[in-house]
Structure formats: structure tokens, C-alpha cells
Amino acid sequence: MPDVDQVSALIRSVAKTEILPWFRNLDASAIREKTGPLDLVTKADEAAERALTPALASLLPGSRVVGEEAASEDDGVFAHLDGDDPVWIIDPVDGTMNFAQGRPLFAVIVALVHRGETIAGWIHDPMDGRMATALKGGGAWLDGRRVRVADAVPLPSMVCALSTRFCDDALAAQLEERAKGVGERVNLSSAAQEYLRLLEGRAHASLYHRLMPWDHAAGILLHAEAGGFAALADGSPYRPSLRSGSLLAAPDAESWRVLRDHLFG
């Protein structure tokens, strides 16, 4: 296992030198679409991933790297997740749309996966300095303080990030209607920021339908190490190699069951 603090220091350094100088300093030439107007990449994403990729690999000889921007250019890098070598997963700027619009709701996500299992995770908010870390079996930590998810509450009191992006129209319509029975929806357009809210106890649940590993591998480990429960809507466990399905996280297994049954019937 790499040294957690060493990885944290590396992430902080890259965020300071490669991401923050671009914040609210992007012109049109520094932003481009990947698959469409809602899927953006900026010079900050590319610079941060270029810096993190060799630096992380050097911390763990023999490891591989799956970065969001590299994967967008070469789908073959996903094959690393099925191998025996440890794999670093990088989301250099999670919440790129927010970043490009000058909204301070973005973060850096790094996960370490070995033989299909996430064994370490980091989420760093460069704007306020928050750093969440977890090693499998070692608890979840936020700025050096061990954290736990919020206590379970009834559905009408839940604060949730319930996304309907990337699911079919029928399911989206069903979820929008049934979400009216949930207390409050807070969608931040950044999975990292939503996982941080779960760790801080400021939200109770989240729901996603596109499961790219850089968005969720670290967050699901952090959430589990903080005492939370997550699974796909059909009850199967999350795996970093998954790229589709509905992923629901809640304070505990019973809350998960109640929310899943309410939303999906």
C-alpha cells in the first residue's frame, strides 16, 4: 500500500499548480466538448492528469493508471481493471461543467484498485482544502478526523442527490415522480462533492446511473468505511469495472432497502 499522506500531498500539489490557476481563467480555447455539450474537458483536466499519472505510478512500481481523459481517447485502458496489477484511477477534475462555469463545486478523485476491489481512495476539494481519505478496513477520514455517515432518518427527512441523468426516459419519469416523497434533493453536478456531503453527514443518500470508475470507486469505498451501505438497485455489489446500472448509497442497509423500494418499486 502507498503512504496515504504522500498521495494526499501529491494530489494537493497538483491541484495547486495545475488546476487552480485555470479556475475562472478559462477562455473558449481552453474548453472543448468530448461527446457533447454536457461532457467537457478543460486544460486543467488535461494538465492535472498528465501530472498525476506518472507521479502515482512511480509511488507503486508495477501499477497501472486509468485516467478519465486517457480513457476518453483509448477505451482499451479499461482492461487494466480486470488484470492482476494494482490500478490507479484518476478523475483530475470531477465537476468539469461547474469548473468551466466558474462554480466552486469540483474536486480531484483518486482511487487505488487491486484485482477488482477498491483498496484506497482520496477526494480533494482544492477550493477549501478538504481531503477525504480511506484505506480498506481503516475507516474514512476527513482532514485527519474520522467520520461517519449521517444517522438513518425517515424518507420525508432524507437529503438526497438523486440523479436521473443517463437513465432511460421511463425510469427518469418514475424517479422524478417518486422522489417527491423524499425530503430534499440537492444535486451538485459533482459526484465528489456529493460524496463529501455524505461523509460530512449533510446528506443521507445518492443515486447515479452512469458508473464510470473515476466517479465512484473512491467515493463508494469512503462511504462504506464511514459506515454507509451502497449497492446497485438490483441488490448486487458495486465493482469498479462496472460502467452502467443504478447505484444507490444510503446510511445503512435498511435505509437503502426502504429508499430503493420507494424509488424503484
UniProtKB/TrEMBL annotation:
Top-level taxon in the UniProt lineage: Bacteria
Binding site for Mg(2+): 68, 91, 94, 215
Gene3D superfamilies attached to this UniProt entry: 3.40.190.80, Fructose-1,6-Bisphosphatase, subunit A, domain 1
Coiled coil regions, renumbered to chain: none
One Pfam family, short name: Inositol_P
GO MF entries: inositol monophosphate 1-phosphatase activity; metal ion binding
UniProt keyword annotations, A-Z: Magnesium, Metal-binding
Signal peptide segment: none
SUPFAM superfamilies: Carbohydrate phosphatase
Cofactor(s) needed: Mg(2+)
Biological process annotations from GO: inositol metabolic process; signal transduction
PANTHER family found in the cross-reference section: INOSITOL MONOPHOSPHATASE, INOSITOL-1-MONOPHOSPHATASE-RELATED
Similarity field: Belongs to the inositol monophosphatase superfamily.
Protein's name according to its UniProt entry: Inositol monophosphatase
Upper classification of the organism: Bacteria, Pseudomonadati, Pseudomonadota, Alphaproteobacteria, Rhodospirillales
